[in-house]
Every structure is written in C-alpha cells, then in structure tokens.
Hints:
About 30% of the residues lie in helices and about 30% in strands. By secondary structure, it is α+β, with helices and mostly antiparallel strands. The chain has two domains: about 1-120, GTP cyclohydrolase I, C-terminal domain/NADPH-dependent 7-cyano-7-deazaguanine reductase, N-terminal domain (GTP Cyclohydrolase I, domain 2, 2-Layer Sandwich), CATH 3.30.1130.10; about 120-200, 7,8-Dihydro-6-hydroxymethylpterin-pyrophosphokinase HPPK (Alpha-Beta Plaits, 2-Layer Sandwich). It is globular and about 70 Å long. GO terms for molecular function: 2-amino-4-hydroxy-6-hydroxymethyldihydropteridine diphosphokinase activity; ATP binding; dihydroneopterin aldolase activity; kinase activity. Keywords: ATP-binding, Folate biosynthesis, Kinase, Lyase, Nucleotide-binding, Transferase.
Amino acid sequence: MDQLRIKDLEVYAYHGVFAAEKELGQRFVLDLILDYDMTRAAKTGDLTASIHYGELAQELVKWCQESKEDLIETLAYKLIDRIFLTHPLVQKVSLEVKKPWAPVPLPLDTCSVKLVRQKRKAFIALGSNQGSPSANLDAALEKMAEQIIRILQVSSRIETEPWGGVEQDSFLNQVVEVETWLNPEELMQTLLTIEADLGRVREISFT
C-alpha cells in the first residue's frame, strides 16, 4: 500500500499524569505513516484523491493542543480516531508519540508509544421483535454510523420465526456490511452498548 509519512513533527502540548505537566506543558514529537491508494492522484493530479500533508500537520498540532490527557496512549488513540474521521481515504494509521521531556530521572533520548490501526470490513446481523422492529433496526443503523462504523451495504429485511424454545414474536432480521478501524473486541463492546441504549435487556442465555 502507498504511504504518506510525516516524521518528527514537534508539538508543544500539555499531557501527562503530573499537575506540572498539564500546567507548564512540554515538547512532544509525532511520527505518522498513513496507508492509502495514491494511484488516482498520481495519474491524474486530482487533489481530492490525495491528502494535503501540510494541512494534516496543522491539524495534528491543533488536535494535540485541544485536550490535556494523562496518558500519551490516550492522545495517540484520539489522534488516530480524528485522522480516520477527517480523511476517509486512509486505510491504515501508524502513529508514534514521543515524549523526550518525560519526567524520568535517568539519561534517555525519549519515551514513546506507537499505535497501529487499520480499517476492516465486518458483517453484522441485526434482529428485533420488540416494539416497532423496523424502527429499532433504523435506530441501530443510525447509532452504528455515529460510532466509527461506516455502513457499506444493507440487506433487505426478512421476518423469521424465533428459535431456542422461548415463546415470543417473530423477528425482523437484516445483515449489514460495515467498515471500521475498531478491533473485534471494541466493535463487539460498541454494539452491545448500542443494544443497551436502545433498551435491550439480556435475560435469556442460549449458550
């Protein structure tokens, strides 16, 4: 995959566990690699098929200075989130956040964390048999789109009989193809949270 790289971008920001770090601030250094297909931009000169690295560098500085995080892990995670949301061309992000002025009383060059995240496709089965099933499925799709889950395709909806020996109404079912940079565990937790927000109560286990 083609790559755009920004190396040793310096930012003065206010992240750290200690109060003095959030008050006085310190220097942070970012190394960023973005994977995306540059073929159309290279062949046609179409700027919309590329990422403006100057603007991206300015965005990174702004985002770093918008909050005060205890951990540079949190900072890196939030930066990756913003990159994916702002630049849909990006398929993979590798970001190292360096903290050369880390409060460590030993001779060292820097402390850093490196996070790597990439977009993946997944298929999610939806089903509802409470209240208005069609409205419930619509609400689930809306909430998924709000949670770093891009809807690619949706199937038609079909009615199915309940399974598992519990007497209940028929289900309205649908399958959705999505794209997300959330890992499988994060995706599952996000979907369970959406269920709970929509009133799902898990009282029966089929395992």
